[in-house]
């Protein structure tokens, strides 16, 4: 049993025990916690039911009183110092997630190509685009390692976005992430309301 990574408050533990107890499930059931788009401003902490056997090999198990939580292996470092709380309100109540490290760009030796791309986008490329009120984010990584990107702010509809993509974004990404085979822009550039150059 690993030492607790996430601080789950008493009220949240009560709520989760109650919730898991109501599941009509054969065998053991816990929760699985993971971060979507970790290391980016769009990071989201997620929790799902996890019947025994549905966890992944790299997941780490943490035991709490009366239940257990599996944390996705690659999300562990983004969930350090995280707190899960439960507050009652007029609608019944709400589970809240505070994970201060989930949005911090962090790169390790074994980072995935996706994590490396996000790191370069948010640590290097976006600070430069911000000068023109622009930004770019990774939408998906294709099976053949092509990064599908979307521009926003001053870059959306900008007349020189092709130059920005080819000479700035693609060049930088390919230098920093050698496994990347290409970059594709999926932005709707017909919207020019905020374009830096029209």
From TrEMBL:
Cofactor: [4Fe-4S] cluster
Residues annotated as binding [4Fe-4S] cluster: 155, 158
Organism of origin: Alcanivorax jadensis T9
Membership in a protein family: Belongs to the NfuA family.
Gene3D superfamilies: Fe-S cluster assembly (FSCA), HesB-like domain
Entry keyword Cell membrane: no
NIF system FeS cluster assembly NifU C-terminal domain segment(s): 117-183
Annotated function: Involved in iron-sulfur cluster biogenesis. Binds a 4Fe-4S cluster, can transfer this cluster to apoproteins, and thereby intervenes in the maturation of Fe/S proteins. Could also act as a scaffold/chaperone for damaged Fe/S proteins.
Cofactor note as given: Binds 1 [4Fe-4S] cluster per subunit. The cluster is presumably bound at the interface of two monomers.
The name this protein goes by in its record: Fe/S biogenesis protein NfuA
Complexes and interactors: Homodimer.
Keywords carried by this UniProt record: 4Fe-4S, Iron, Iron-sulfur, Metal-binding
Residue ranges occupied by any Core domain in the UniProt entry: 6-100
